[in-house]
Amino acid sequence: MNFIVEFLLFCAIICVIVVSLKLKKLHQSEQKFKLNADSLKSQLTSLENQLNQNKKTQDLRESRFHESTADLRRILSREQESISKKEKELSEKELELTVRLQNLEKNLEEETESRKKVLSQKKSSEVRLGHIAETLAPFLDQFDFDPENCTFLGKPIDYISFDDDAITLIEVKSGKSQLNSKQRHIRDLVKNNQVNWKEIRIK
């Protein structure tokens, strides 16, 4: 009987030791789990902080982006207003210059017509003056020939003077008028002694 009691007591002691060991292991596992949980919690907190920091940075960047976009829109709006204003000014200047150009063209046409009329009148008066000078030439002091010996031809030479010692071709000019090409040719023929006499008899 004592043996059974001792055996049971021994078994109970063994069971207590085993349970104690298991409790110790369980406590160690719990401590390890608690440490792991604290580590995970710390990591989670760190990740949350990092996430919050990233969110703040992202919010800040987004805010700056929106501000930059708003600034660019304001600048673009001002530039568009400036361009519209300049286009309006250029359009007004173009219209003004077009009107001025039309007026200048009109004035030029009027001035050209006026000059043509004046030039025509001047030429006409010069022609009339030339005819008068040609007609009156024999009676002027500058005319060195005897009018009675002069015969009026008109074209291409005004007069021929038949003096006793020479026959002279006379061309009367007034103002700044010049010999025409035919008159110059006749002058050159006379100066080169290319003057001939031809007698024609008609039966």
Q: Spatial order of the strands in the main sheet? A: 1-2-3
List unreliable stretches of 5+ residues.
none
Topology order in helix (H) and strand (E) letters: HEEEH
Helix content: over 70%
Strand content: 5-15%
Helix tally equals 2
The count of strands amounts to 3
Overall outline: rod-shaped
Radius of gyration: 65 Å
- Average pLDDT, rounded to a whole number, is 84
For the biggest sheet, the summary is: 3 strands, antiparallel
How would you describe this structure to a colleague?
This protein has 203 residues and is mainly α. The protein is built from 2 helices and 3 strands. The protein has helices at residues 2-136, 181-191; strands at 150-152, 159-162, 167-170. It has a 3-stranded antiparallel sheet with strand order 1-2-3, with no helix packed on it. The longest helix is centred in the middle third of the chain and has 135 residues, at 2-136. The protein starts with a helix and ends in a 12-residue tail after the last helix. The mean pLDDT is 84.
